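FAQ

Q: What does a record look like?
A: Structure on top, sequence underneath. For example:
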């Protein structure tokens, strides 16, 4: 049974294939219908993606990594790592445009003495650009390098080995905290001994680019800690990381810790979260998060109308909030399909009974299902 059948929604794929949006069609074919990427239908859809003016505009926005391009904030969609992730979600590959390869090469050239990848930016309170490696920099860079075919580059493997060594016992368990940038005392906000949910999710996503056999044996513990942030949301909220409406409702293009990203990343670890070895608490937590993704984003007709979007993407269907977006619909269903082994448990979740961490008191946040 298809995941949408189990979750009580109509099959979205006929609409996605007929909507006239190449990226949505490509996702529907390759991720929802499991059509091989070398199938003529998938090839045609990808060709259409690359011919789209909106795709070319995104490629034109790729920065020169060797200089500070003024994009600050790891949630900003025009940050190079986020922009590459968006292009990857649309089906774009490294060989499709020389600017992608150039950017990846530049990323590989900048690392600190321990191999953490660096970003050039101004520290808070300064107008001087410098290279530095926050963990949320190196993890995101290693991830896009792996996604675009550089996972076996020795510099990527060294960065991943250092990332494993950077794991610490936080107040919540084994995870990555906010660590000061190389050569600096500045680090991100939050308690020094707390998990950083975003950095930890980025680290797990970077390691997901490796085959299951090549992943560090400690990652199940890190996944347990990551899901523990959700399980313990009523008692403890890491600074800036709540679990209310903003967590449950995707902001497009998706760049930050939330139900979409958690289900997307952890859906890449079926060897940990499916089968007899999976901890029931972790499986329950992921099913609840996926249920929130469904309830807060997918209407009764199976389509997603963006409820929040970054400015500057109005030319894309996911950049407006007035009509269902084929691409947003395709991407949400692609994430839900990654955890389809949990579909019966997801369907059984009563999202209205789930508390959030808003105010730290676990008050339920009733969802508004579908478009407003």
């Amino acid at each position: 049974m298809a995941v949408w059948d189990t979750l009580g929604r109509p099959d979205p794929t006929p609409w996605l294939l007929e909507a006239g949006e190449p990226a949505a069609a490509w996702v529907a074919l390759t991720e929802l219908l499991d059509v091989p990427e070398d199938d003529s239908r998938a090839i045609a859809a990808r060709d259409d993606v690359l011919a789209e003016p909106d795709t070319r505009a995104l490629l034109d926005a790729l920065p020169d990594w060797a200089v500070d391009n003024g994009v600050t904030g790891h949630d900003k969609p025009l940050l190079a790592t986020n922009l590459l992730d968006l292009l990857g979600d649309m089906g774009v590959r490294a060989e499709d445009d020389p600017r992608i390869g150039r950017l990846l090469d530049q990323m590989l050239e900048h690392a600190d003495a321990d191999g953490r990848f660096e970003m050039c930016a101004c520290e808070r309170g300064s107008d001087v650009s410098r290279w530095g490696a926050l963990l949320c920099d190196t993890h995101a860079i290693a991830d896009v390098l792996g996604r675009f075919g550089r996972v076996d580059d020795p510099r990527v493997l060294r960065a991943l080995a250092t990332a494993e060594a950077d794991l610490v016992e936080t107040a919540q368990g084994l995870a990555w905290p906010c660590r000061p940038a190389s050569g600096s005392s500045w680090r991100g906000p939050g308690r020094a001994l707390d998990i950083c949910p975003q950095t930890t999710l980025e680290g797990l996503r970077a390691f997901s680019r490796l085959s299951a056999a090549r992943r560090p044996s400690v990652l199940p513990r890190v996944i347990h800690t990551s899901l523990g942030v959700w399980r313990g949301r009523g008692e403890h909220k890491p600074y800036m990381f709540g679990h209310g409406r903003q967590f449950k409702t995707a902001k497009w293009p998706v760049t930050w810790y939330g139900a979409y990203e958690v289900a997307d990343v952890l859906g890449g670890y079926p060897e940990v979260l499916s089968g007899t070895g999976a901890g029931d608490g972790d499986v329950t937590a992921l099913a609840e998060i996926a249920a929130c993704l469904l309830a807060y984003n997918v209407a009764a007709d199976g389509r997603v109308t963006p409820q929040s979007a970054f400015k500057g993407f109005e030319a894309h269907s996911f950049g407006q909030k007035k009509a269902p977006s084929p691409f947003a619909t395709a991407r949400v269903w692609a994430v839900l399909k990654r955890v389809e082994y949990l579909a019966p448990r997801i369907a059984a979740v009563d999202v209205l009974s789930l508390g959030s961490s808003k105010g730290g008191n676990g008050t339920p946040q009733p969802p508004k299902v579908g478009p407003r």
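Q: Is there anything notable about this one?
A: The CA atoms of residues 4 and 11 lie 6 Å apart.
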